[in-house]
Amino acid sequence: MGFSIALIVFSLLLMLLVLMHKGKGGGLSDMFGGGMQSSVGGSSVAERNLDRITVVVGLLWFACIVVLGLLMKLDS
């Protein structure tokens, strides 16, 4: 039960984080300083941190799916 709730929370959080990434036309990450850089430079600190957080949440989401799959297999 706990992993199911965690999977729902991580799914919603991952969806929010992906939507915050800047695409071709900008994104919600501009609110956190992502739009204050020049177009020639690399990604800003806010974008890099958003990338890191998204990867961590994605890995936790994947781990929840694996654990739920194993639990369902063991219950059968």
TrEMBL record:
The entry's keywords: Cell membrane, Membrane, Protein transport, Translocation, Transmembrane, Transmembrane helix, Transport
Pfam families membership: SecG
Subcellular location: Cell membrane
GO biological process terms, semicolon-separated: intracellular protein transmembrane transport; protein secretion; protein transport by the Sec complex
Membrane topology designation: Multi-pass membrane protein
InterPro entries assigned to the protein according to its UniProt record, in alphabetical order: SecG
Molecular function per GO: protein-transporting ATPase activity
Main location: membrane
Transmembrane portions of the chain: 53-72
Domain of life: Bacteria
Keyword match Glycoprotein: no
Alphabetical list of NCBIfam families matching this protein: secG (TIGR00810)
Family: Belongs to the SecG family.
Role this protein plays: Involved in protein export. Participates in an early event of protein translocation.
Database matches in PANTHER family: PROTEIN-EXPORT MEMBRANE PROTEIN SECG
Protein name (database record): Protein-export membrane protein SecG
